[in-house]
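Before the break, one more example. Copy the sequence into your notebook; we will annotate it together after we see the structure.
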Amino acid sequence: MKKEPKAIGKVTHWYDNINVAVVQLSSKLSIGDKIKIKKGGEVFEDTVTSMQLDHKDIKLGKKGEEVAIKISNIAKDGALIFRSE
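Here is what the structure looks like once it is written out:
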């Protein structure tokens, strides 16, 4: 039986007008990482192309930080972020 992957973060807020998700990280996340965003039955994949911490561009988000990432689809509050293979 395949083990469910561990979430690396959770969406705490979604800014619809700018397609930005605020994510509370439980693991590190880097620019270029491929991620899977999952909420209920809705799942989509994306690549992290832009990330900010306190309105400053960063290349790496660390565990415990709340970062803003730009994504191409709607990510609802509470959606889980996973690393994509």
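The longest strand covers residues 9-15. The mean pLDDT is 94. Try to locate both features in your own notes.
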